[in-house]
Amino acid sequence: MSMSRRTFMASLSATTFTLSVSACSSGDGDGDAAKVRFGYIADYNGASLLAVADERGLWRKHGLSASYKTFVNGPIQIQALGSGDLDYGYIGPGAIWLPASGRARIVAIDTLTYADRVIAKPGITSMAGLKGKKVGVPEGTSGEMILNLALRKAGMTMDDIKKVAMDAPTIVSAFSSGQIDGAGINYPLIDTIKQKVPDLVEVASAEDIGGSFPTAFVTGAKANGATDAKVVRVLQEANDWRAAHPDETVALTAKLLKVPQDKVKADAGHVKALTTAELAARTKDGTVGTWLDDMTDFFVSTGQLKKAPAADSFYAGAAYTKAAS
Question: pLDDT at residue 50 above 50?
Answer without folding.
Answer: yes
